[in-house]
Amino acid sequence: MNAATGDMLQRTPLYDEHRAAGATLVDFGGWEMPLHYGSQIEEHHAVRRAAGMFDVSHMTIVDLAGPRVREFLRHLLANNVDRLQDTGKALYSCMLNERGGVIDDLIVYLMGPEHFRMVVNAATRDKDLAWIRRHAGPYGVEVRERDDLAMIAVQGPEARARVHEVLGPAAGADLADMAPFYGREVDGMFIARTGYTGEDGYEIMLPGTQAPALWRALLEPGVRPCGLGARDTLRLEAGMNLYGTDMDEEVTPLESGLGWTVAWEPEERDFIGRSALAAQRREGPARKLTGIMLEGKGVLRGHQKVFVEGLEAGEITSGSFSPTLGRAIGFARVPRSAGEYCEVEIRGRRLPARLVRPPFVRHGKPCT
Amino acid sequence: MSEVPDDLRYTKTHEWVRQDDDGLLTVGISDHAQHLLGDLVFVELPEVGTAFGGGDDCAVVESVKAASDVYCPVAGEVVEVNEALADTPELINQDPYGDGWIFRLKPEDPGAAAELMDAAAYKQMIEDEAD
After folding, report:
1. Closest C-alpha to B63, from B91, B79, B42, B94
2. Residue ranges of domains in chain B, CATH in brackets
3. Mean pLDDT value across residues A167-178
4. Best residue of B32, B39, B47, B60 to probe chain A, by most A CBs closer than 10 Å
5. Is the complex ipTM more than 0.95?
6. Which of A103, A297, A333, B75 is 20 to 30 A from A189 via CA?
7. Who among B39, B42, B64 is closest to A298 (CB)?
8. Nearest CB to A321: which of B41, B60, B86?
């Protein structure tokens, strides 16, 4: 929520659809976005049990092109874009500063031989674009923000079937055999089998002018509009970090449960932040990010203190109520040696909790 | 538009108060408040026997989104709490003026509730807030 007060909030091409559906709108990173359309919990369940859709057009889409674009991204990102060899393949990565701090997390797609696409967060748009452009210069890479595109995420066990139905048999057949974490151009849209909910589904990037028609078409077979509220509880259950909350420029991926996204091989790949990160890896990071579940009743919230016997206090980074599990879950940053049992301070009282490995829910089923 | 029953009294902090025949006050949060909070998932009830001053925070209602204090509308002692809310906090969303009541209070001053806003004043207040 970093829009200066008084500034006009930005609206996505789906704004009128949200108003028509009775959304409660909030300022999210300078964008006027739906928080929910009546019941956040019912929207959450719709995604776990059937199909829901989210307007994620506020996210920043950046196309990168040029003969040296792959070399540039090998330097820019902590994960290695050489893992992307097939057209359409997607990769999750952090973009780090020289100290190894996380500037943003993102998904990068291979679009063609000299063309990649990155999707970065809305709230970090300005600093991300400045950082990318600054480093792209020496490589002669063209950086083009695609603010002409909207994005609709359709998620849930029935999501793909609903999208195939709406797009018709030809497109459906084209998409049916596409593996997870791949994307494909279909009818002028870029459709990727990715998401932020722990369910199967698609993220569909398409011209903003066409987005309202697709949104309305998806309503027909019962795809339920879902707001940012449900998006947050879904990603939390799925064990996915939220930038700005679970990590920022002051912490590294190793302290954020994202060590798996750092590609150390080949050793000679000199990505930004590598030397700082390698030093921290040798010494062992002091803290870790882990899942946390409250044993009894109550709700975990960001910034509550976490006490582990004999160790320095930690802190909840994200916390909420899990509609699927019916109890409070969250992420906590705690000393690396913390074991399972801990206490969380809620309104002056210390309540028992357990540190667990995320995810909490995968494909609709509890993991813990 | 939120429901605002005419026979209740209201506070600036969105509690409603019903004057019962036995001299006790029943307290809950308004339809407007439950709507703003969204789906409730946890209620921390006051302890029976505790005395609160008018305006003291005495309970907490938590939705998926946020925690919000419930304030004691007038000075008094809590004599009963709605235990059903421990397992079904969503009663407040479903029936804020009925099954979603939160606690009952024995007021220090038997006439205190009459000093609170009536339905018309409360309606006016939430309309002004919307502007």
Report:
1. B42
2. 9-110 (2.40.50.100)
3. 95
4. B39
5. no
6. A103
7. B42
8. B41
